[in-house]
Automatic annotation (TrEMBL):
Keyword set, alphabetical order: Chaperone, Isomerase, Periplasm, Repeat, Rotamase, Signal
Alphabetized PROSITE patterns for the sequence: PPIC_PPIASE_1, PPIC_PPIASE_2
Protein name: Chaperone SurA
Gene3D superfamilies: 3.10.50.40, Porin chaperone SurA, peptide-binding domain
EC top class, as a word: isomerase
Record's keyword annotation contains DNA damage: no
Keyword Magnesium in annotation: no
Signal sequence annotation: 1-27
Role this protein plays: Chaperone involved in the correct folding and assembly of outer membrane proteins. Recognizes specific patterns of aromatic residues and the orientation of their side chains, which are found more frequently in integral outer membrane proteins. May act in both early periplasmic and late outer membrane-associated steps of protein maturation.
Location of this chain's protein in the cell: Periplasm
E.C. numbers: 5.2.1.8
Family annotation (InterPro entries): OMP_Chaperone_SurA, PPIase_dom_sf, PPIase_PpiC, PPIase_PpiC_CS, PPIase_SurA, SurA_N, Trigger_fact/SurA_dom_sf
Superkingdom classification of source: Bacteria
Length: 438
């Protein structure tokens, strides 16, 4: 399978893999190693499960199954590529966020009709002990792989100022950043033939704008089709991953099928018109003092220090001098605690809330964020036209999304070629099979 298919494979079959009674047991007493990948191994039971998932996916799409040996080789290659990514996860020491993990598992639980993680665990473990733990571990791996991809692949994407300038001059750039769009939005979800139904809906949308009729026509017991007329919207009001796709099509055209966690989305562009709306946002000129807990400074000591500094400020001591002397934020401490002009959305939530609610010229009470204890002072505010900055940021995002898939493919090939891989079963080794064929 192509790399693009690999990226969506595990998401598409995750629920089926968890709750389908046709899948094999996760571990077998007669398990054997079929491949070694760096410091990890792939077991025969892992391969059997991957083969079952591929077959389930192809059958759900009503596609003809290729020869068994081909499926086995493809399944093993997917497992190898997945394992090379997990080796990178270990290297970068990336861990899943527990809250995000619970939310991801709960989404799978909801799809199976379970109202809580506890009920879902009981349901899965009743099929086979340990199934819930295996599923949770697998979702955790998916989350860490996705997080690592974002970090690594994004760092490989290079977009120059000249690239941005050139893009903004193109019709696509002007359409994406300066226009409003009138869009129809359709989402297809369910457990049966979702992609097949989505393709039919996409074809129907080419000549039909009656969302209600389309939804009624294609909704079945196993598939739900929901649609809405979004009216005229600024592209900035549409989720960025959708706005980037709308910006590249012409009125009357539909986007490609957009597969995300909650189903497959399709957008149809009806009209596009110019927008004179400016991106005017409030900005705050801020300075702060930060005390971070360290191995030397305990959390309690950090709180005592910030309280002492606050009392000295209230007594009239100079903010800049105290920031320069005590703040553990080296970048701002050198400038008397100054952070310059700060826009909304840049700082952590606790800091932003305090910044917005502190009157100009007054000092906030000490407050805590993930970085430690802060005191801030807002010295001025202004309304700033950020239209140009917004346009450049949007252009970079669009250009980045265009490069992401190609850069991801390149990175996956690199880590695959650099990994130590030993296939124990010669029947599964595609290289050896190619040599024997020749």
């Amino acid at each position: 399978m192509k790399t693009k298919q690999l990226r969506t494979f595990f998401k598409a079959t995750l629920l089926a893999a968890a709750i389908s009674s046709s899948l094999p047991v996760f571990a077998q007493s007669t398990d054997e190693v079929v491949a070694v990948v760096d410091n990890s191994v792939i077991l025969r039971s892992d391969l059997a499960q991957s083969i079952a998932e591929i077959k389930h996916q192809l059958e759900s799409q009503k596609k003809q199954l290729p020869p068994e040996q081909y499926i086995e080789q493809q399944a093993l290659e997917q497992l190898i590529i997945r394992q090379t990514q997990l080796e990178q996860v270990k290297r970068y020491n990336i861990r899943p966020d527990e809250k995000a993990l619970n939310e991801a598992v709960m989404k799978v639980a909801a799809q199976s009709g379970s109202s809580s993680l506890e009920a879902f665990q009981q349901k899965l473990d009743a099929m086979a002990p340990g199934t819930y733990a295996s599923l949770r571990s697998r979702i955790a791996e998916d989350l860490t792989i996705n997080r690592m991809r974002q970090q690594v692949v994004t760092s490989r994407i290079k977009i120059s100022d000249q690239d941005v300038e050139n893009f903004l001059k193109t019709p696509q750039g002007q359409a994406a950043l300066g226009n409003q769009v009138h869009v129809l939005h359709v989402r297809i979800s369910g457990n049966n033939n979702v992609e097949s139904v989505a393709k039919q809906v996409q074809a129907e949308l080419k000549d039909n704008n009656d969302i209600a009729a389309i939804s009624k026509k294609f909704t079945t017991a196993g598939t739900k089709v929901e649609g809405s007329d979004m009216g005229f919207r600024n592209l900035s009001d549409i989720p960025s991953e959708l706005a980037a796709r709308v910006s590249t099509i012409e009125p009357g055209q539909t986007t490609e099928l957009i597969s995300v966690r909650d189903g497959i989305h399709i957008l149809k562009l009806l009209e596009r018109k110019g927008s004179e709306q400016k991106a005017i946002i409030p900005q705050y000129k801020v300075r702060h003092i930060l005390i971070q807990p360290t191995e030397v400074v305990s959390p309690d000591n950090a709180k005592q220090m910030i309280d002492s500094i606050y009392n000295r400020l209230k007594a009239g001591q100079n903010f800049a001098e105290l920031a320069s002397t005590f703040s553990t934020d080296p970048g701002s401490a050198r400038d008397g605690g100054s952070l310059g002009w700060v826009s909304p959305g840049v700082m952590v939530p606790e800091f932003e809330e305090k910044m917005k609610n502190t009157p100009v010229g007054q000092i906030s009470e000490p407050f805590q964020s993930q970085f430690g204890w802060h005191i801030l002072e807002v010295t001025d505010t202004r309304q700033q036209d950020m239209t140009s900055e917004y346009q450049q940021r949007m252009a970079r995002q669009i250009l980045g999304e265009r490069q992401y898939d190609a850069e991801l493919d390149s990175w996956l090939r690199e880590i695959r070629s650099n990994a130590f891989v030993e296939i124990k079963d010669s029947a599964l080794d595609r290289k050896n099979n190619k040599k024997s064929d020749s």
